[in-house]
């Protein structure tokens, strides 16, 4: 604080000094500017031909010499550092080798400073013999390049230095009084702060740094009956942090154990889910094959039904043909009977012809020679009648045989018709059964298709469950890593050894071996035995183990 007040006082005094020097510099600049403007006016008269250069310079020297500022005057020297005009020195004097008591070539320094277009200043310190003390002068110089002149002036700034030191003393006194007052106030504040801290602030800082570095093992030494200081609050915070860090460590260990068990259970569930997914995939494949088989059977049954319908229609057509054959055979039998009657008539005619021929022969024999020709004719007629009778007998025999065959054929045709009728009935029943089988196969195909869709949905759900199990495993692993990271973070704190609280042992989950999947196997009714739940973990406590010296 004292150093700060001294710096403030010094800054204020120096600022005041700079302001005063700036005011003096501005006055000198105005004086030199006025002289420069005066010389410019004479130069203009020379340029106008009103004056010669020598006349203008003489008048300018006379008028510039009359200019003053606060007791200061203007003197002039040229580029060769020869005096052009000086109130106390003769003109034309060479001042290039003029040195002060400090060995400074004063006029050379003035010429160097005056080389700048706007001129320049410098402070010159010397010893004043009249007052027998060191004095400081502020010099200002500016060059007139057209004539090769340097306009210079100066002003004493010793009074500024005196004012500076006077101000320093005044401000120092005021600052001393303020510092004494502030010292008393700060002493009172420090005493109150020390009481609020409960001890030396350095001790509080050391304690806070030790806690910040993670060392919670060392208790604080408090004043007697201290229950409101900062150190008392810090000790309470340290004690609470010890409890919290111990609980966090125990909780992180419990989380680590639980996540290990949960991870093991997720792995078992994932394995069972994969086995179930494989079984469902094989079941889906088998159901797809079964669906194709049933669909093919349904198509075959439909084709068989169509073929049976065609066979039934063919059998009906055959029955109709057989009926017409039976009718034709009956007509043939009727015609054969008529032919038999005709043959009987022919036999009767042949018999009567034979009798007539025999009578004719008898009559011819009676006639003798006259009836011989008639006898020959009668003999021929009897021979023809005999052959006709034989032929009719043969025809009768053939007709009787044919009639028997026709009767047998008609009987066979009737039996074939009856058989075809039975075939038609059987075919119709078979067609009906095949149609029912086709309908049942179609319904079965639709049912199996629905089952196949359900199996596919089960497969998708199982795969989703497997994905969820994998996500759960990832989340569990992440939780375990975070618990390990938390334990690592908490291990940064150093705790005192405290008794370890009891902890209920966790029960590991049981594993059940799933049977190998079988193709087209019915789903098992019994679900796998769930993993046993771990026992409830007791409240976290601080452990009393050898490695608990650092937490």
UniProtKB/TrEMBL annotation:
Biased composition (Acidic residues): 542-551
One Pfam family recorded for the sequence: sCache_2
Major subcellular site: membrane
Protein name (database record): Methyl-accepting transducer domain-containing protein
Any one annotated GO CC term: plasma membrane
Keyword annotations: Cell membrane, Membrane, Methylation, Transducer, Transmembrane, Transmembrane helix
Species of origin: Kushneria marisflavi
Region (Disordered), start-end ranges: 503-551
Single GO BP term: signal transduction
Membrane topology designation: Multi-pass membrane protein
PANTHER family: METHYL-ACCEPTING CHEMOTAXIS PROTEIN I-RELATED, PROTEIN ICFG
Molecular function in Gene Ontology: transmembrane signaling receptor activity
Domain annotation Methyl-accepting transducer: ranges: 251-480
InterPro entries in UniProt: Chemotax_Me-accpt_rcpt, MCP_chemotaxis, MCPsignal_dom, sCache_2
CDD domains per record: MCP_signal (cd11386), PDC2_HK_sensor (cd18774)
Bias (Low complexity): 521-534
Lineage, broadest ranks: Bacteria, Pseudomonadati, Pseudomonadota, Gammaproteobacteria, Oceanospirillales
Domain of life from the UniProt record: Bacteria
Subcellular location: Cell membrane
Family statement drawn from the similarity comment of this UniProt entry: Belongs to the methyl-accepting chemotaxis (MCP) protein family.
UniProt cross-references to Gene3D superfamilies, sorted A to Z: Methyl-accepting chemotaxis protein, PAS domain
